[in-house]
Write a structure and sequence with these properties.
Layout lengths: L1 H10 L36 H22 L6 H16 L13
Subunit structure: Complex I is composed of 45 different subunits. Interacts with BCAP31.
Family: Belongs to the complex I NDUFB11 subunit family.
Subcellular location: Mitochondrion inner membrane
Protein backbone atom coordinates (compact mmCIF):
# COMPACT_ATOMS: atom_id res chain seq x y z
CA UNK A 1 0.00 0.00 0.00
CA UNK A 2 2.81 2.41 0.85
CA UNK A 3 4.58 1.45 -2.37
CA UNK A 4 1.56 2.40 -4.51
CA UNK A 5 1.31 5.81 -2.84
CA UNK A 6 5.00 6.51 -3.45
CA UNK A 7 4.65 5.54 -7.11
CA UNK A 8 1.56 7.75 -7.47
CA UNK A 9 3.31 10.72 -5.80
CA UNK A 10 6.45 10.37 -7.88
CA UNK A 11 4.51 10.11 -11.13
CA UNK A 12 2.41 13.19 -10.40
CA UNK A 13 3.71 16.43 -11.87
CA UNK A 14 3.35 19.50 -9.77
CA UNK A 15 2.07 22.77 -11.23
CA UNK A 16 2.42 21.89 -14.91
CA UNK A 17 0.60 25.00 -16.13
CA UNK A 18 2.91 27.70 -14.77
CA UNK A 19 6.47 27.28 -15.92
CA UNK A 20 8.83 30.04 -14.87
CA UNK A 21 10.99 31.51 -17.54
CA UNK A 22 13.44 34.34 -17.37
CA UNK A 23 11.90 37.50 -18.66
CA UNK A 24 12.83 41.10 -19.00
CA UNK A 25 11.55 44.32 -20.44
CA UNK A 26 11.72 45.41 -24.05
CA UNK A 27 14.74 44.03 -25.80
CA UNK A 28 15.71 46.96 -27.96
CA UNK A 29 15.17 50.67 -28.02
CA UNK A 30 14.48 51.71 -31.54
CA UNK A 31 17.37 53.70 -32.99
CA UNK A 32 16.73 57.43 -33.15
CA UNK A 33 19.90 58.44 -34.98
CA UNK A 34 21.27 60.34 -31.98
CA UNK A 35 24.36 59.32 -30.05
CA UNK A 36 23.36 57.88 -26.64
CA UNK A 37 19.76 58.79 -27.54
CA UNK A 38 20.38 62.48 -26.78
CA UNK A 39 19.40 65.23 -29.15
CA UNK A 40 22.07 67.77 -30.17
CA UNK A 41 22.29 70.71 -27.76
CA UNK A 42 20.54 68.84 -24.94
CA UNK A 43 22.23 69.67 -21.63
CA UNK A 44 23.31 66.72 -19.53
CA UNK A 45 22.64 67.11 -15.82
CA UNK A 46 25.18 65.29 -13.63
CA UNK A 47 23.78 62.86 -11.13
CA UNK A 48 24.39 63.18 -7.41
CA UNK A 49 27.10 60.55 -7.13
CA UNK A 50 29.24 61.80 -10.03
CA UNK A 51 30.95 64.69 -8.21
CA UNK A 52 31.70 62.55 -5.18
CA UNK A 53 33.15 59.84 -7.41
CA UNK A 54 35.16 62.35 -9.47
CA UNK A 55 36.77 64.09 -6.51
CA UNK A 56 37.21 60.88 -4.54
CA UNK A 57 38.74 58.87 -7.38
CA UNK A 58 41.05 61.54 -8.75
CA UNK A 59 41.92 62.76 -5.25
CA UNK A 60 42.99 59.23 -4.32
CA UNK A 61 45.01 58.97 -7.55
CA UNK A 62 46.77 62.27 -6.80
CA UNK A 63 47.44 61.19 -3.20
CA UNK A 64 48.92 57.91 -4.43
CA UNK A 65 51.07 59.62 -7.06
CA UNK A 66 52.51 62.07 -4.51
CA UNK A 67 53.11 59.19 -2.10
CA UNK A 68 54.96 57.19 -4.74
CA UNK A 69 57.05 60.21 -5.74
CA UNK A 70 58.22 60.86 -2.18
CA UNK A 71 58.58 57.26 -1.00
CA UNK A 72 61.95 56.35 0.50
CA UNK A 73 64.47 54.46 -1.57
CA UNK A 74 64.50 50.94 -0.12
CA UNK A 75 66.45 49.13 -2.83
CA UNK A 76 69.13 46.71 -1.71
CA UNK A 77 71.57 48.12 -4.25
CA UNK A 78 71.23 51.65 -2.84
CA UNK A 79 71.72 50.41 0.71
CA UNK A 80 74.79 48.40 -0.31
CA UNK A 81 76.33 51.42 -2.08
CA UNK A 82 75.83 53.65 0.95
CA UNK A 83 77.26 50.97 3.24
CA UNK A 84 80.29 50.49 0.97
CA UNK A 85 80.93 54.24 0.81
CA UNK A 86 80.74 54.48 4.61
CA UNK A 87 83.21 51.61 5.08
CA UNK A 88 85.60 53.06 2.51
CA UNK A 89 85.56 56.42 4.30
CA UNK A 90 86.27 54.69 7.62
CA UNK A 91 89.32 52.97 6.07
CA UNK A 92 90.50 56.21 4.51
CA UNK A 93 89.97 55.21 0.87
CA UNK A 94 89.00 57.87 -1.62
CA UNK A 95 85.73 57.70 -3.44
CA UNK A 96 86.90 59.75 -6.41
CA UNK A 97 89.15 58.60 -9.18
CA UNK A 98 92.21 60.66 -10.06
CA UNK A 99 92.17 62.09 -13.53
CA UNK A 100 94.93 60.81 -15.76
CA UNK A 101 96.02 62.30 -19.05
CA UNK A 102 96.47 59.36 -21.37
CA UNK A 103 97.30 60.02 -24.95
CA UNK A 104 96.57 57.25 -27.35
Amino acid sequence: MLGRQLIRLSARRTNTGALKRSGHGPELQEPTGYLFNRKPGEKIEPEGWEKIWFYGFYGAMLYGAVGLYFKPDTKTRTWARMEAEKRMLERGDTLEYKHTDYII
